[in-house]
Specification:
It is a single chain. The chain is an alpha+beta fold and 215 residues long. 18% of the residues lie in helices and 31% in strands. It is built from six helices and 15 strands. The strands form four sheets. An eight-stranded mixed beta sheet has the order 1-2-15-12-11-14-8-9. The protein has a three-stranded antiparallel beta sheet with strand order 4-3-7, covered by helices on one side. The protein has a two-stranded antiparallel sheet with strand order 5-6. Strand 8 and strand 9 (119-122) form a beta hairpin.
């Protein structure tokens, strides 16, 4: 690594290092339901209300008797409580609901900035920067394609990659792989200004710029 400032160090590599298993699992966090998760919902004693459901892209599910329920961002226990409240009295006397995750999509990336649909997206299989941007609906009409940042934490260190989508499209360098918990920001000049001193003289059109940031 080559020092450039008290808070930023350039990494002598063309690829951000992959996150470790611990970085990806984040084992101490409660699981929050998200789009495309599959759930098993059981209402005790009522066979007709024992269902396997899948959360849709907007984070909602449809359940018999009570219709559409906002599920994204809730834990399974919290969702069970919501379902009990909605069923209580009018449909079921003293409902007892359990919610179990059948198939989880806990591994997500954040895509923000000048894209059509900013948000959280599941990482299914191998995903690259270009695919992540496409998943978010592609770049906005006036997006700054030379201003793309990937934030990543590896072993407690915050790493940042600066990329030019035009350079990747031209084949000047490899489309970098992205991983769960990465944050991709397209066309955010504020993020780019953090690195203005080391960007001067660099050509992102021919090679990415990778840095390690420190508090």
């Amino acid at each position: 690594m080559i020092g450039n400032s008290p808070s930023v160090t350039v990494i002598s590599s063309e690829q951000l290092p992959a996150p470790s298993r611990a970085d990806l699992l984040a084992a101490n966090r409660s699981y929050l339901i998200g789009p495309f998760d599959k759930l098993r919902i059981d209402v005790f004693g009522i066979e007709q209300l024992q269902k396997e459901v899948q959360i849709d892209a907007s984070g909602r599910l449809s359940f018999p008797l009570i219709g559409v329920v906002e599920a994204a961002g809730l834990t399974p226990g919290e969702l069970a409580g919501v379902l009990e409240q909605r069923l209580q009295g009018q449909y079921v006397k003293n409902p007892q609901v359990t919610v179990n995750l059948e198939e989880t999509v806990s591994q997500v990336i954040t895509v923000d900035g000048q894209v059509d649909r900013p948000g959280l997206y599941p990482v299914i299989g191998r995903m690259t920067l270009m695919r992540a941007v496409a998943t978010a609906g592609g770049t906005a009409e006036f997006a700054k394609l030379n201003d793309v940042v990937i934030f990543r934490e590896v072993d407690g260190q915050r790493l940042v990659g600066l990329y030019n989508l035009k350079g990747i499209r031209r084949g000047n360098y490899e489309d970098p792989e992205v991983f769960a918990n990465d944050v991709v920001v397209v066309g955010d000049s504020q993020a780019r200004r953090i690195f203005k001193d080391i960007i001067q003289g660099s050509s992102l059109i021919t090679t990415p710029l990778l840095v390690l940031t420190r508090p």
